[in-house]
Amino acid sequence: MKNSGDKTVQNGVQRTRSASLIMIGMGGVSAIVTTFLLANSPLSTNTKAGGFGGIVVCFLLLCILAHWRQESQERERMASRASAAGVENALKAFDEMAEIFTGSFRRSDVFRLIFGRLQQMLLIDAAELLLLDETRYHLVVNDVEGFGDEGVRRTVQVGEGLAGDCFASSEVRIGKEISVSGKIMSAAAIPLRHGAGTFGVLQLYLGNGVDDISDLEVIGNKVSPLILSSISFERSLSNALTDATTDLPNERAFHLILENQVAESQRKGDERPLTILAIDIKNFGEINKRFGHIAGDRGLNFAATTIKDSLRQMDFFARSRDDEFLVVLPTATRDKSEAIVDRIQAAFSGQRLNVTENDSIEVGLNFGWAAFGADGETPDQLLRTARVRKAEAKSNMPGKVLWFPQEFAS
Predict the structure, then answer these.
(1) What mean pLDDT, rounded, does the chain reach?
(2) What is the pLDDT, as a whole number, of residue 403?
(3) Are 227 and 255 found together in one domain?
(4) What is the per-residue pLDDT across 204-261, written as a single tens digit (0 to 9) for each?
(5) Is the distance from CB of 124 to CB of 148 less than 8 angstroms?
């Protein structure tokens, strides 16, 4: 792509060359005429010699001036070409990114790469990515680069402000905008399009402003598919790690977290205890058989919500298969694990779940546990032990079942 600035500079170079030639030509004619008149004048020889010297010096200065103007214009033309080449290379880089990264990078990582390219291309100071929220009436800043720790998640009404107007019109908007840091800066809002619709806005903050919007429109066309594919990737990744019935993380996500927590406990040893819980619903098969699978799903969601509300913020809670739930309790000692299970049991005590319009049931739980070190040092060993103890709880001990033998280290 060749911008209009480069064409303007090239036209200026051509005019400068023509003016230089005319200047030198007229200077040469003037020097010849002046020399002839001076030679035939009645002046003294010394005066004529001084005049001839002055004519030579003036002509040389004229030539130097013409050459300097031409060189200056040539340097400006080369700088413009270099700038145009930089824009061209940056836009090509977006195409390469689309080929390499499509469908394999998170949105925040892709936005960071885009910001780096745009810094080289337009010398931007900062950038924001605004995406339409669930209400479809607001744009929310999802990613920020260039503002350091000042970046905040803010909301913009569709149709208002630079970004809101850009989204509503689906056209590039240039103007002044108050940045996150409270400064009024030159800004450009670029619509991110998919098909006939617009799904977001890329807002750039530029210290020197921008005059030509043609480059910005091309940038929007190049960047839109990159951001859209990263959003699709995050959604597919989220779906792959989420249980559809309860919206909890699934067993695959549980294994990823557990592997990380086990590695941390292996590194720190006794300084970082770790416990996992395996939990299922008592007589869940009978609930499904008697009241149907809809009632069973209701029971799963009731148990999921109640258990989750009883856990610490740092605990990781997931649904496995059938009616089984799995919990990672980082840094949980024996006393802390017992306290958490007591809290879960208390949350279920006295509560009944309405399975039909006329029937309600009391939901009970079976627990199994495993502690890092005492029951294994790998995720598979810990999970196997917790499930075995949960099975023992079903057959041997009604009510709350949680054993902590002497070898469990607090």
Answers:
(1) 81
(2) 44
(3) no
(4) 998 776 666 888 999 999 999 999 999 988 888 778 888 989 999 999 999 999 999 9
(5) no
Q: Does the pLDDT at position 124 exceed 60?
A: yes
How sure is the predictor about 293, in pLDDT bands with cuts at 50, 70 and 90? confident
- Count CB atoms within 10 A of the CB of residue 97: 19
Q: What is the DSSP string of 222-236?
A: HHHHHHHHHHHHHHH
Q: How many residues are given for the chain?
A: 410
List phi, psi (to 5°) of 202. -100, 110
End of a domain among 205, 236, 267? 236
* Statement to judge: residues 211 and 260 lie in one domain: no
Provide the whole-model pTM. Answer: 0.53
Tell me if 309 sits within 8 A of 263, measured CB to CB. no
3-state secondary structure 243-299: CCCCCCECHHHHHHHHHHHHHHHHHHHHHCCEEEEEEEECCHHHHHHHHCHHHHHHH
Take residue 256 and report the two structure tokens written for it. Answer: 């990823």
Distance (Å, whole) CA 355 – CA 16:
89
Q: Distance between CA 345 and CA 360 in Å, rounded?
A: 19
Is 70 exceeded by the pLDDT of residue 82?
no
* pLDDT over threshold 80, residue 18: no
Tokens for 46, please give them: 């010394």
Beta strands in 305-364 (DSSP E): 316-319, 324-330, 353-354, 360-361
For the domain that residue 300 is a member of, what is the CATH number?
A: 3.30.70.270
- Positive or negative CA dihedral for 312, 313, 316, 318? positive
- Write out the E strands in 79-219: 124-132, 138-145, 155-157, 173-178, 184-194, 197-206
Both 176 and 231 in one domain: the answer is: yes
Q: What percent helix, strand, coil does the chain show, rounded to 5?
A: 55, 20, 25
Q: Is 188 exposed, middle or buried (0-12, 13-18, 19+ CB in 10 A)?
A: buried
pLDDT, tens digit, 9 for 90 and up, residues 24-66: 777 677 767 777 776 777 777 777 777 777 777 787 777 777 7
Which residue is listed with tokens 């809002």?
Answer: 189
Counting residues of the chain whose pLDDT is more than 90, the rounded percentage is: 39
pLDDT at 330 over 90: yes
Which residues span the domain enclosing 202?
107-236
- How far apart CA 125 and CA 181 sit, in angstroms, is 12
Q: What are phi and psi of 399, to 5 degrees?
A: 80, -150
